[in-house]
Specification:
The chain has six helices and three strands. With about 130 residues, it is mostly helical. A hairpin with a 2-residue loop joins strand 2 and strand 3.
Length: about 130
């Protein structure tokens, strides 16, 4: 399974699949993705096929209809892809990445407060 090789477009498709509690059809993915992206429905079908080839999705056919289910969990995929991003863009420096996003305004004051609480809870304290 090549989760770290998922493209941005494939991520958009995967988010739709992960949101569902059951297997989804290409038409269900198309219904959600096309209005937001403007993509051609065939583009979505191609992305689904690529994700099957990469081993990220499974495709099963029932009564002539293809159903797609994730083989890669959302949390694990984000962890792997996040680590790859951190290594590629920030040379593995998580502090630099977090500072960048905080200074860039990617977090609201409430979110920064949540981060403070999380850091206080998770990091060892010098006593």
């Amino acid at each position: 399974m090549s989760v770290e090789k998922i493209t941005d477009a494939e991520w958009r498709v995967m988010h739709v699949v992960w949101k569902s509690d059951a297997a989804v059809t290409s038409n269900e993915v198309i219904t959600e993705v096309v209005p937001e992206t403007g993509w051609n429905p065939q583009t979505v079908r191609t992305l689904l096929a690529r994700l099957v080839e990469k081993g990220v999705l499974a495709a099963t056919k029932e009564k002539g209809v293809l159903f797609f289910t994730p083989l890669a969990g959302r949390d694990e995929s984000i962890r792997v892809h996040g680590q790859s991003f951190l290594t590629r863009v920030f040379e593995g420096n998580a502090r630099e990445m977090l500072v960048h996003f905080i200074r860039d305004g990617a977090f609201s004051r409430d979110q920064i407060g949540e981060l403070r609480t999380l850091l206080d809870k998770e990091l060892p304290h010098d006593e």
